[in-house]
Write a structure and sequence with these properties.
This protein is an alpha+beta fold. It is built from 9 helices and 15 strands. The strands form 2 sheets. It has an 8-stranded antiparallel beta sheet with strand order 1-2-3-4-8-7-6-5. The protein has a 7-stranded antiparallel beta sheet with strand order 9-10-11-15-14-13-12. Strand 7 and strand 8 form a beta hairpin. It is flat, with a radius of gyration of 28 Å.
């Protein structure tokens, strides 16, 4: 038996519903949001970064549209390496192209990664540096390799890639670095409080699980070579007074758990210096200051430990506090 037909008002409503829905969708699409089309008017942190790019870098002029990427679409630009940047603290990427006046294609691409923190910018910088890179004076730290130049400035990791051999890469990088510094209000001098333990060698960033110690993360490691060729490996973790105290507790708990002997060797200012008798690594030392933990693997003389204690403490604390570092073995 056939179903009864619906009343005529219902039939009319069903006939009108599709065109009404289509009309509503069309009207919604006509609303213009300039923030979606012009990154420089968006009012978000990424837009502020986009404004830092000058119209010219020396003889090169800005070309095309400024592109921005977030965690959601970073893979569209660096597919295969996006997870690394996101895991290192990535917040936003801004990409700008430059080329000679009248050129139809860019000769230089500038990628500026907002990494959130200077230490996180340093982390990706060291990963991207490459073994053949040559240090140059740009920003807080920089390297150049073939037609690629990378530098860090405050919380930013910047990578410039040239498509032509005669592209003034270094000049462009210095101009851009100066612009980023002035607009961001960042202080210059991205330094680490390592003491003088010999000739400075490579500096590395280890994000997690330093030397198998799960509580030691975001570690900066620097290699030093002494006058007799002895190697000292120093490591540094910056933090707050609270996190530094937690690190000290975790370190002592780790040593106790592993059955490794240690003793408090000396104090320099308010920094405590521990001597660790490690059956695997040999004797090594770490100093705990107000807001940093500084350690050294390798042979250390009393003067080295004194420098460790001084480096582990803010300068004003070190000057005011007494030292008994002369009692070190």
């Amino acid at each position: 038996m056939a179903s009864p037909a619906p009343p005529w008002p219902v039939r009319v409503l069903l006939l009108l519903l599709p065109p009404l829905v289509a009309l509503a969708v069309w009207m919604d699409g006509q609303r213009y949001d300039p923030g979606l089309l012009d990154f420089q008017k968006g009012g978000n942190p990424g837009s502020e970064l986009a404004k830092m790019f000058p119209d010219t870098l020396g003889l090169l002029k800005k070309m095309g549209t400024i592109r921005e990427y977030t965690e959601a679409n970073l893979y569209e630009y660096i597919n295969g390496h996006a997870d690394f940047f996101i895991g290192a603290g990535f917040r936003r990427l801004t990409v700008v192209e430059y080329g000679p006046p009248g050129a139809r294609q860019p000769t230089l691409v500038a990628d500026v990664y907002d990494m959130g923190k200077p230490m996180q910018a340093f982390g990706v910088f060291t990963d991207q540096k490459g073994s053949q890179a040559e240090a140059v004076n740009v920003g807080d730290m920089a390297f150049v390799s073939d037609r690629t130049l990378g530098f860090i400035k405050d919380i930013y990791y910047v990578r410039l890639a040239a498509f032509a051999a005669d592209t003034p890469l270094l000049e462009a990088a210095r101009l851009l670095a100066g612009k980023i510094q002035s607009r961001a209000g960042a202080t210059s001098g991205f330094t680490f409080a390592f003491p003088d333990l010999g000739t400075t060698g490579e500096t590395r960033f280890i994000k997690e699980n330093y030397r198998g110690m799960a509580f030691l993360n975001n570690v900066v490691e620097r290699i030093f070579t002494g006058e007799k060729g002895e190697v000292r490996t120093a490591f540094l973790v910056n933090g707050t007074p609270a996190t530094t105290q937690d690190l000290e507790k975790s370190m002592l708990a780790f040593l106790q758990g592993e059955g490794i002997k240690y003793q408090t060797s000396a104090t320099q200012g308010q920094a405590k210096i521990y001597r660790v008798t490690d059956p695997y690594e040999g004797d090594w030392f770490f100093a705990v200051g107000q807001d940093r933990l500084l350690g050294v693997f390798g042979p250390c003389q009393p003067e080295h430990l004194q420098r460790m204690g001084e480096a582990a403490q803010p300068p004003d604390v070190t000057r005011k506090s007494p030292s008994n570092v002369q009692d070190l073995p």
